[in-house]
Design brief:
Length: about 425
């Protein structure tokens, strides 16, 4: 099994990610996050928000509606140009993206010996349509947002008027997006429903200024992934070629990850120029201009965008963290991302004093850390360690007979497997420092 297959199996077995609507045979390109998966995703979003909004003075957040007036998508160019080239195999009528030669070749190899005939490529729009309204024949066509971005740009004026932000400043957002992907695949890598975490950063339109911020955000985003434990050697930047860029982008670079299915896009960093604001100004008739408070000069800002997938990050963090180490599988997830921060074990499940003491440590730590703390009293200690290693819990605490005598416990470290004895009264301070509270 390659890394991806191992992670798919682990994700199902331990409750990270399940196929969407599984008991009905699934729905292609949709995934459900289980008890551990929701924690991993929430932790990714929490760390993103902290670094983008709480730790900066020049970024604020919004949470815009998924359903928007369809005119938004006409103005943004998505109705016209948000499309992939589609080809169909004339023998079995399966559809593929013409710009993905590996998948075309894979399919051709199925028709061994015979030449596969393909239809001419045609543009296939990725926007997912829905109907809104209560009267059947008067329902309006709407789109599920194809990118979360437009909800930010249509609120540019609202944010300016309701806060004290001044250019350069950014608006961060996290939320669901939907795309009618022609070939969803590689687990959650390409889904039809997924979450994005984005920053739209508004700057003066001068070339030097927008380029400065573009380089700044490229570097920041790369640093962010590395700071969360991504292997630097498996990340690289790649600039989009002419003809590859999305309709809104003046310049586009991807952070790519070296996965078992090739170097793949992790996050896109785009210079959107004044595309979005000028298009919304034109189509809505609302003035989107920004007036510089010092010079009185009025202009349409340029937008530097960082756009990452939360699900894609969860997948690549899982693959990056997966290790087989002698007789154990261990997820070396960064402490900030691990679903459970600590696990508590009474040495023996049938010794009432041990269980009572362990329950009290468990309940205290949960409150003190405001984090998930696991409880396990099944099987022997070795098995419990391995069960926690497999889901990435950084620390395990065992309450044993010595605990009853001197109020100390053993703390076992996931990565080094070393054990130390610690006073219960010092646990709160110790873990708060570890988890940077
Ligand atoms: N607002 C810009 C934008 O949406 P994008 O390159 O189309 O740009 C940004 O998407 C990120 O969203 C990607 O780098 C990826 O992480 C994530 N993403 C895009 N399509 C996806 C899909 N079908 N499934 C999962 N994640 C996806």
């Amino acid at each position: 099994m390659n890394d991806l297959e191992k992670v798919v199996a682990l994700a199902k077995r331990r409750g990270f990610i399940f196929p969407g609507s599984e008991i009905y045979g699934g729905l292609s390109g949709t995934w459900d996050y289980g008890p551990l998966g929701v924690e991993l995703k929430n932790n990714i979003k929490r760390v993103f928000w902290k670094s983008m909004v709480y730790e900066r003075d020049d970024v604020v957040g919004v949470d815009a509606a998924i359903l928007m007036n369809p005119k938004v998508w006409e103005a943004s160019g998505h109705v016209e140009a948000f499309a992939d080239p589609l080809v169909e195999c004339k023998t079995c009528h399966e559809r593929f993206r013409a710009d993905q030669p590996e998948e075309i070749q894979k399919h051709e190899s199925i028709h061994k010996g015979k030449k596969t005939e393909w239809t001419e490529p045609r543009k296939f729009n990725l926007l997912v349509e829905a109907k809104l309204g209560v009267v059947e024949d008067k329902k309006d066509k709407v789109y599920l947002r194809g990118e979360i971005t437009q909800g930010v740009h249509v609120n540019f004026k609202n944010v300016l008027d309701s806060t004290r932000v001044q250019i350069p400043f950014g608006i961060a957002q996290i939320g669901k997006a939907f795309r009618n992907e022609i070939t969803p695949g590689n687990f959650t890598f390409r889904s039809r429903e997924f979450e994005q975490m984005e920053l739209q950063f508004y700057v003066k339109p001068e070339k030097g200024e927008s380029q400065k911020w573009y380089e700044y955000w490229k570097a920041e985003r790369m640093k962010w992934y590395v700071s969360l434990g991504m292997d630097k050697k498996k990340l690289r930047f790649r600039q989009h070629e002419e003809g590859e860029r999305a309709h809104y982008a003046k310049d586009a670079w991807d952070i790519e990850y070296d996965s078992s299915f090739g170097w793949k896009e992790f996050e896109g960093i785009h210079n959107r120029g004044d595309w979005d604001l000028s298009q919304h100004q034109k189509h809505s008739g609302v003035d989107m201009g920004y007036t510089d408070q010092e010079s009185g000069h009025k202009f349409l800002p340029y937008i530097i965008e960082t756009s990452g997938g939360v699900d894609r990050a969860a997948l690549f963090f899982l693959i990056n963290a997966y290790f087989e180490d002698k007789d154990r599988v261990v997820l070396k997830l960064h402490k900030k991302l691990a679903p459970f921060k600590v696990a508590i074990f009474p040495l023996l499940a049938n010794k009432i004093e041990l269980v009572k003491k362990a329950r009290s440590v468990h309940s205290d730590l949960k409150t003190q850390l405001s984090e998930l703390v696991a409880w396990d009293d099944r099987g022997n200690i070795g098995k419990r360690y391995f069960a926690q290693d497999e889901i990435g819990t950084p620390y395990c605490i065992t309450i044993d007979f010595q605990t009853l005598a001197d109020d100390t416990v053993t703390i076992r470290d996931r990565d080094s497997m070393k054990q130390e004895r610690f006073k219960i009264k010092n646990l709160e301070k110790y873990f708060k420092k570890k988890f940077n509270h």
